[in-house]
């Protein structure tokens, strides 16, 4: 009887927890989930960077590049959706997310530099227009992510998020211009 009572209490407790999570407003969330999104984004960007760096020309080893690019897009879409669904950030949340975005910007900078360095190889393989399209898509997706970060940020951190966004846009513009020439 005691075991049955324990099971019933556990089920009731679990049901209450699930119901509470489903009904709670976004205000009750912390940025832990967003930090996990950024950790996953950083992993995807590192994977993409590794594949770009390893590319030595030709069309035979494009599979990993395509897969890595698609992974980054998928994670960016999820991260942006999660930021959009989140309540406005507290001051602490804004600072935490600013640190996350700064770390990601460093990885994206390295990736864009690698893309710029590999431009001639992509041209020689006849795929630079495909790479350009992917770069443009990532630029738009990351711009949307930063728009959402700015929208959720506290007033005292909005300009810092915009500064990161502007830096990233400038880097993208350089690479897009090089690939478009």
Automatic annotation (TrEMBL):
InterPro entries found in the cross-reference section: Cell_wall_mannoprotein_1 (IPR021054)
Record keyword Signal present: yes
Keywords from the UniProt entry: Signal
Signal sequence, renumbered to the chain: 1-21
CC annotations in GO: extracellular region
PANTHER family registered for this protein in UniProt: CELL WALL SERINE-THREONINE-RICH GALACTOMANNOPROTEIN MP1 (AFU_ORTHOLOGUE AFUA_4G03240), HYDROPHOBIC SURFACE BINDING PROTEIN
Name of this protein: Uncharacterized protein
The organism of origin for this protein: Venustampulla echinocandica
């Amino acid at each position: 009887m005691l075991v049955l009572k324990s099971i019933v209490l556990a089920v009731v407790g679990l049901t209450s927890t699930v119901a509470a999570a489903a009904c709670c407003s976004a205000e009750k969330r912390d940025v832990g989930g967003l930090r996990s999104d950024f950790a996953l984004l950083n992993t995807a960007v590192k994977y993409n960077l590794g594949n770009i760096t390893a590319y030595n020309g030709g069309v035979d080893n494009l599979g990993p590049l395509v897969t890595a690019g698609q992974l980054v897009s998928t994670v960016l879409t999820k991260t942006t959706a999660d930021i959009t669904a989140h309540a406005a950030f507290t001051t602490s949340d804004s600072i935490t997310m600013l640190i996350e975005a700064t770390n990601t910007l460093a990885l994206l900078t390295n990736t864009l530099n690698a893309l710029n360095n590999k431009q001639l190889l992509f041209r020689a393989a006849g795929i630079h227009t495909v790479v350009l399209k992917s770069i443009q898509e990532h630029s738009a997706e990351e711009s949307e992510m930063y728009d959402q970060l700015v929208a959720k940020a506290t007033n005292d951190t909005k300009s810092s998020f915009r500064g990161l966004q502007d830096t990233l846009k400038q880097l993208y513009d350089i690479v897009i211009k090089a690939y478009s020439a």
